[in-house]
Amino acid sequence: MMPKKQYSSLIAFVYFLNNNISGGLLAVPFVFYHAGLMFGVLLLVVVAVFTVPPLIWTLETMARAQALEDRQCTEVNLTQRLDGDTVSKCQVWINIESLPTYGIRSERKFEVDELCRLFLGRKTGLLYGWSIVIWCLLCMWYYVTVAASAWAAHIPFNSEYFQQCSDDDFRLSIHPVGVCWNTYSVCVLMYGIIVVPISMMDLTEQKIIQIVLSYVRLVAVILMVVYCLVALLSETGGEQNYDDGNSIGSSWFRVDLVGGMAVIPVISHALSCQSMIPSFVQPVADKRKLHWLLAGAIFACACVYGVVGVTVASHFKGQLVETSTLSWVPLTETGHKLVIRIMSYFIVIYPSLVMLSALPLSAVACSNYVLSLCRTSGTEPSMATKRVVRFCVVMVPLICALGVSNLVEVLKYGGLAGYLSSYIIPGLLVLKSRKVCQQIFSIRRGSLQEGKSKASSLEAVVVWDESKEAASVCALDTGSDVTSTPYTSILSKQFVVWSVLAFSVFATAATIGSIVLPIYGH
Question: Which pTM value belongs to this model?
Fold first, then answer.
């Protein structure tokens, strides 16, 4: 079925930015400051560079899967027309005039787990599926922490057991303590009361809501950057002095390896989008330049992260909270200009509004993956089963958020869970799909009898010659690269694949190191 609506590359670019600039943005200033601004920017560029090739490899693999599926359809049609007694032992068929045509079609979407099953086997497909489930759960975990911490810092709880939290309660700690923890726990409960019922429903497209939230996010990011730039350029340093004894120069050129180890998983998680690529590219009208579109979108996201990270870190310095928007909490208090207070309220609250909409969508996607992975028959699960699974899926991040509210720590585990799906699986897919297509589409000449004996090993094929109405062996031009797709480039070379796989190993080691040596204990 054709998509109901296709959109241009420009709309696709904006859609990608809107979906990929999420909660990771809130943690970037904190990790930048503790790593050193220039060192943080350098690591941002490195992670972005290594993120682009796997996205293009996914496009390549989708195009090869489409070519193999087209060939299979041709085989079925030809098999029905050939004399079974003459060529019954031959297993592979091809039209004599057809060469592999690589491309991505709007009417056919190959999900990444389907590509894994096709090229890497069922077990790898299951491994990829469960890695996405874990990644989704970690995303929902930080949705809860961001929303609950924002509410705890703004709702005026005033009693013996509950008090309004401050930004200090969330700074450099795994979770708040004392009466603030009680308040935070109540906010987690409030968030759950709202999102659990929504997650039980089958969600349709929320076009209006997503458009509004995209504008809210854009306005908030602009306000954050503009306020910090104005404060840095003004003589007074803004509404509040955040001088921690370090000059701007020392913040720029400081290199902290422990802080740097935290930058890698935070940025990797923020730029991770492998699972959304099939859904993202399917409605794009012009698919010839998809690889350039994805590369440009990743670097645009990296620029946004870099600008926000540098400006916010340069202004707030050592007073930064892991969820950077909470750094504006002191500016909401009386004594500051009314316009500054209104702006600060908006900046602190906006992530919780975005997360309210994001979690139910993630819960539906995650539960669908769980149902697909656990399904033993082809029957569609009942609505009652779907609701039970969604309830369990939503409860996991709600419970986990009670134990850990530190956004950076959650993103570290999110980055660790995403390395398999973001770097390793795409690398294996592009290598294996290339090998399979090379075997199938590179065919040497031989006799009809030789074709029969070699067909099972894919070294030769028997074809139906329309002009002669007879079966014969056909050879493609073995001198050409029969695996090249419209998205194949120098980034598809083997040395690039192995470089990305090596980076994933390095990133895994760095992330484990950042978990063992957290910033707040450094």
Answer: 0.79
